[in-house]
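Human: My hope is that you can spare some time for a protein that puzzles me. I am handing you a single protein, as its sequence and its fold in token form. Could you go through the record with me and say what the backbone is doing? Take your time, and here it is.
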Amino acid sequence: MAVYVTQELSNSLEEIILSRHKSFECDELQIISGYIGVDPVKKLSELPIRSKLVFGMYADRGIQNELHNQMLNVHSENVKIFYSKAEVHTKLYIWKNIGEIVSVLIGSANFSTKGLKTQYRELLMDVETDNFNSIAAYANR
């Protein structure tokens, strides 16, 4: 099991997430995150694979208008953005190829600048392939 911890900006969690598709044959990145940030979401549109982003800590209080409008500007055929109706605090990063999971990272890092670039604040860990079915069931909810 590999553990990734932000140690320097050249090896940030954001860089790991945005470049991991190069390590596996994949055509999709699915992210489930409690909170999101504009800059990391914008970078999804630069990837050569499709992205699906679900964020879930805005169900109770709603999302700020400015953030909502910025997400509308990024939402596209290549980057699908969804709001969860239930509060979800999960931080889950799933790479798929033709609908099948090929790699998963899970941990404490929200898909936000603070969550991905603050040194020694967050971590992500690989999920063993034996757990992919459980991850798929959770993500499909």
Notes: Helices lie at 13-19, 38-44, 65-74, 113-117, 132-140. The radius of gyration is 14 Å. The mean pLDDT is 85. The CA atoms of residues 53 and 140 lie 12 Å apart.
